[in-house]
Design brief:
Radius of gyration: 21 Å
Number of strands: 0
Strand content: under 5%
Helix content: over 70%
Oligomer: single chain
Length: 431
């Protein structure tokens, strides 16, 4: 296919992958890895880049937190915490959902939304087991709430940092640390209200035994059938303290001790202390999630390097005409950023569109702050696919979700968030 431009090849591959993701004719992880291999074979990305996702720090973070999650089950800590939280929030599905989303949103505002989801997922599964509720009714709200919370502070999610960096690079006044909360809090409140009053009715309704098996498989895949009923309280305490230390390390955002190092260090401590065996640690890793995310990383690279992402952006922007209204520009860039982030990382989407947004804003004499805020918020609205953001991917296997589950629950949520941002952003950051 030498006669085709790399950008054209990338767009064709992305279109085929989108069809495969929606129809699930082949497993999601196979689709992701196949797309990367095809792009490598056709020369769009280098052979080294095809599997570069497997060494990505987020993949390492996934692996470490899966091991910690497995230890929480093997020591009985998850079950213990589940019982305690059930007593605090009650056994009702709605009350648990409120508790789950509130905790996730608050934690992800000061730490990684990926780390928050990874740390809370085994706890939520334990809660669901204790309450007799299907985990599929709680894990997607958990992932979505982690996405909401990340929009409230500068460090909550990468697009916010990228938007600030774009402003600084253009010698413009950057956003304040908590300035994102002006739109992040309304976005979070609307998102949680949606999940409580409408989204929960769109969540899959699978039988509790089936769901329990699927969820527990993430933490204890191929575990011996005879699980001990009596747990070692010492190992339970070690696991709990390790989890707290790991989460704190993530929240502090230490430069010399990043998220993946914290997660893997915690996993190593739990293996060395006997809280989980080496074999149980390996079996506790959800390899479907690992390969799904790792496969999409080189695809995102291809979108960026080949210019395919810019072609998409330029094509959409051209429809606005030569002198678009700032409000139209804000809405169009929100839709474009949100659309791209469903299939490429929110980091890549923001990095691609922020410089374009500043250029266009200057061209029409508008303040770029509102434009960049729209791009950043939209990049965090990756609710319609399991590959748009790491938290969505993380709960995919544990919740036994299908691709269309995300589409059904996520699309109405995206529409609501679009309305909220379109109304509030021009008011808070006037053009």
């Amino acid at each position: 296919m030498d006669f085709l431009e790399p950008s054209t090849i990338t767009l064709i591959v992305l279109a085929v992958m989108a069809v495969m993701f929606v129809t699930e004719l082949i497993p999601l992880a196979i689709t992701a890895m196949s797309g990367a291999i095809v792009l490598g074979a056709l020369g769009v990305i280098t052979p080294a880049q095809v599997f570069s996702g497997l060494s990505n720090s987020t993949v390492v973070l996934f692996a470490g937190m899966f091991v910690i999650g497995a230890a929480m089950f093997h020591t009985g800590l998850a079950q213990k915490l589940g019982t305690m939280v059930v007593k605090a929030f009650g056994t009702g599905e709605i009350s648990l959902m409120i508790g789950t989303m509130s905790i996730a949103a608050l934690l992800s505002a000061i730490s990684s939304n990926t780390g928050t989801t990874a740390a809370l997922m085994p706890v939520i599964i334990g809660i669901c087991a204790a309450a007799g509720i299907s985990a599929s009714r709680q894990l997607m709200p958990l992932a979505f709430a982690a996405g909401f919370g990340g929009t409230m502070t500068l460090i909550g999610t990468p697009p916010n940092i990228i938007a600030n960096g774009a402003l600084a690079a253009s010698n413009l006044e950057p956003f304040g640390f908590f300035e994102f909360a002006k739109i992040g809090i309304p976005v979070s409140i609307v998102g949680m209200l949606y999940m409580i009053f409408l989204g929960r009715f769109l969540l899959p309704k699978r039988s509790a035994p089936q769901e329990a098996n699927a969820a527990l498989k993430v933490a204890e895949a191929h575990e011996e059938r005879a699980r001990p009923k009596e747990y070692d309280s010492k190992k339970m305490w070690i696991t709990g303290i390790t989890l707290i230390v790991v989460v704190l390390a993530m929240a502090l955002n230490l430069k010399r001790f990043p998220l993946e190092m914290a997660a893997v260090s915690g996993a190593i401590v739990l293996v060395l202390t006997g809280c989980i065996s080496e074999g149980q640690a390996y079996r506790g890793i959800d390899w479907v999630t690992i390969f799904l995310f790792a496969g999409m990383m080189p695809v995102a690279t291809a979108l960026d390097k080949s210019g395919a992402g810019k072609i998409i952006a330029d094509s959409v922007i051209s429809f606005m005409g030569d002198n678009p209204s700032p409000y139209v520009l804000c809405s169009v860039l929100f839709i474009l950023s949100c659309g791209l982030t469903q299939f490429m990382s929110n980091t890549a989407s923001a990095a691609l569109l922020c410089p374009i947004g500043i250029s266009i804003a200057h061209g029409i004499g508008a303040s770029p702050h509102g434009v960049l805020m729209a791009i950043a918020m939209a990049a965090s609205c990756a609710f319609a696919t399991p590959v748009g953001t790491p938290p969505n991917t993380l709960v995919l296997g544990a919740g036994n979700y299908r691709f269309m589950d995300y589409v059904r629950v996520g699309l109405p949520l995206i529409v609501l968030e679009f309305i909220v941002c379109s109304v509030l952003i021009p008011i808070i950051w006037p053009f």
